[in-house]
Design goal:
CATH topology of one domain: Nuclear Transport Factor 2, Chain: A
Helix content: 10-25%
CATH class of one domain: Alpha Beta
Keywords: Signal
Order of helices and strands: HEHEEEEHHEEEEHEEEEHHEEEE
Strand content: 25-35%
Distance between the termini: 15 Å
Number of strands: 17
Structural class: alpha+beta
Shape: globular
Length: 341
């Protein structure tokens, strides 16, 4: 199970671009434009940018373009809504002649105006229910669409939590407004029982003492996923623990020892172990980590991934990954119903 941290390419770019000199005339979204008025941008490009912004803010919301920055392969075009509730940024790909991403950055005071009542209620209720002991407060929210990025969501709302530790709530527009939440915690805020379980699991798995330095909690309401993530200082060793049952769901240490995709394909073109060899090696680890006996399980091998499952209905599966040296460095539990409750 992988850690849940969504930061799109445009998010990182936003902070980089704000430090660059901008050199463009102010442009009304409704006005006729020429390439001279907006530097290198043609009316066709501007029209595409306008449509991208309108898709997120609505066709009845007036806005204007303010700054254009030439980034070489892309133009970064920034602007604001005329009512003062938000600023926005678009990224236009020159080579592919398309808008790669659009981000509208709203002031938290405009929550009522930007969101319809049902979505606002859903967001606030989810934030309240995430942790009854720790109220989640927001200091800003964005509307983002990056249709060509590989990670999901790519069309979403994101609400940024306020306070010392990072937290964020995502609303996936393409998946029926499914809500996912991620929040960092100081170790003092975490149940000591969970911390001890995480540290002991890492020690049993690695054979050495590993100190837990980072803690975060994740929830995907639609999938029924809800777990804690504990990591060491380098974020190279981690444990996932179910937030409800406190059972270990996954554990891993850094094990990637291949150079690139080509090296990976070459290294795992043939299985490192046969099914019987893998069962023999993995069985004691699985018993130790998940208290599951792999007797009667069969094995499926794909690349460096070994899936241990049983035909008997209602049994969980185990996924283990091996590196070039033949070390199983990653184990995760897949519940029988596909969900973690």
């Amino acid at each position: 199970m992988q850690k849940f941290r969504w930061i799109s390419a445009i998010t990182a770019l936003i902070f980089a671009v704000t430090a660059l000199p901008a050199h463009a005339a102010v442009l009304s979204a409704a006005a006729d434009t020429t390439s001279k008025q907006v530097g290198s941008l043609t009316p066709t490009v501007v029209n595409r940018l306008e449509k991208a912004v309108q898709e997120l803010v609505g066709t009845k919301t007036p806005f204007q373009f303010d700054d254009v920055t030439d980034m070489g392969k892309t133009w970064i075009v920034e602007g604001e809504l005329e009512d003062g509730t938000a600023t926005f940024q678009t990224e236009y790909n020159k080579e592919k002649n398309r808008v790669d991403s659009t981000t509208v950055r709203y002031k938290i005071s405009s929550l009522d105006k930007a969101l319809d009542a049902p979505l606002k209620a859903k967001v606030l209720n989810s934030a309240k229910a995430f942790d009854r002991k720790r109220s989640m407060q927001f200091e800003a929210f964005w509307r983002v669409k990056s249709p060509y990025q590989s990670n999901k969501p790519s069309n979403y709302w994101v609400f940024w939590g306020a306070g010392e530790k990072t937290s964020s709530l995502y609303v996936d527009v393409d998946r029926g407004n499914n809500i996912t939440i991620n929040a960092d915690y100081s170790l003092k805020q975490v149940d000591p029982v969970l911390l001890n379980r995480a540290a002991n699991t890492l020690q049993r798995f690695s054979g050495q003492r590993i100190t837990v330095q980072h803690a975060s909690r994740f929830k995907d309401e639609a999938k029924g996923l809800s777990y804690w993530l504990f990591e060491d200082a380098n974020e190279s060793s981690e444990v996932n623990i179910d937030a409800t049952t406190a059972k270990v769901l996954a554990v891993s240490t850094y094990g990637a020892d291949w150079n690139d995709d080509a090296d990976f394909k070459k290294s795992f073109a043939r299985p490192k172990y046969t099914a019987s060899e893998a069962l023999k090696l993995v069985k004691p680890k699985v018993q130790l980590l998940f208290n599951i006996n792999l007797s009667g399980y069969h094995v499926e091998i794909q690349g460096n991934q070994y899936t241990f499952s049983k035909k008997q209905k209602g049994t969980a599966s185990i996924i283990a990954k091996v590196n070039k040296k033949g070390f199983f460095y990653d184990f995760s539990l897949r519940p029988a119903d596909g969900k973690v409750q």
